[in-house]
Amino acid sequence: MTSSAAPPPDTSTHGARPEVDIILPRLDEAGALPGTIRPGAGGPAGRPADLGVTARRSGYPLEMLLRATRAGWRLFERDITYWPEHLGKRSKVDGSPRRTVDAVTGMGRHHRPIIALAGDLAGACRGSEIDAALDARWDRIPQHGACFAARLVAAHRMTARRHPGRPVLQIAMDTPHLTSEILLEAAAQLHLPGHDAVLGPTPDGGWWLLGLRDPRAARALRGVTMSTSHTRHDTLTALRDLGLRVGLLPSMTDVDTWSEAVTVAAAAPTTRFGAAVRLCQADGSTASTASGAR
């Protein structure tokens, strides 16, 4: 995760924007992939290990698609049947840490970025590149907790201790089209009269950003199950049950499946993410109509 604090510049609409902290979850789950990717038999190289894929924490990320394409493998996307222990869960693929770090850094020198890491960057896809992008302004903290919601609560709590009195924007890693301007606008919305919190919804029932004037209010997330079609509804209910006034931000598509990757790449064609998706499309190695594994 990451957090940053700073007063955004004055605007004619909202006036001076106060300091804000930003939290980004799960940086070690780098990579973007269509649905769930797993190797099949019969490729020319025979084994995924032969491709030299280095990032495996989230299955086989976009790195596998690119290497397999260049090696002449034929790639297909199909829905799969999960083992019993995975029933009721969605494949969750996050994939734009560098882009997100750049967006947070671009908010300006007054914001204090904090990243909460679950794992070692040395084992992440492009980990050294991401590490280099985290300049001296970034505060690194560990993640704690038995589930995703618990880790979010712990990161907010630690941020409140290290930076008392600062509001927080907590954002995910799977929105490659995120920009500094979008984050600054979210900070402005958080400080409007009548807003104790802001929530950025996603079309699949989740959310891409949570803003809290008092990060200790993240305790409301303890009973919320993440990565479901009702996570946004449950989060809104939990925040309002705590007495918070919640403002809604514009919806953004997050990347969990190949079809969503195509949609986001079209919205952000000049990004490296957009270029990577176009490379896969140009090769014809993925099914353009596939909905992705759920």
How does this structure look, described?
There is one protein chain. The chain is an alpha/beta fold. The longest helix is centred in the middle third of the chain and has 15 residues. A 7-stranded mixed sheet has the order 3-2-1-4-6-5-7, with helices on both faces. Helices cover about 30% and strands about 10% of the residues.
Task: Walk me through the topology.
Layout lengths: L20 E4 L37 H9 L26 H9 L6 E6 L9 H7 L5 E4 L5 H15 L5 E4 L8 H11 L6 E5 L5 E6 L18 H11 L4 E3 L9 H10 L4 H12 L11
Parallel strand pairs: 1-2, 1-4, 2-3, 5-7
Antiparallel strand pairs: 4-6, 5-6
Helix pairs in contact: 1-8, 7-8
Helix content: 25-40%
Widest β-sheet, arrangement of strands: 3-2-1-4-6-5-7
Number of helices: 8
Measured between the Cα atoms of the first and last residue, the distance is 25 Å
Order of helices and strands: EHHEHEHEHEEHEHH
Quaternary assembly:
single chain
Strand content: 5-15%
Number of strands: 7
The chain-level structural class is alpha/beta
Main sheet summary: 7 strands, mixed
Mean pLDDT: 74
Which shape, going by the Cα principal axes?
globular
What is the gyration radius calculated from CA atoms? Answer: 19 Å
Which terms would index this structure?
seven-stranded mixed sheet, globular, 294 residues, 11% strand, alpha/beta, single chain, 7 strands, disordered C terminus
Give a brief description.
This protein is α/β, with parallel strands linked by helices and 294 residues long. It has eight helices and seven strands, in the order βααβαβαβαββαβαα.
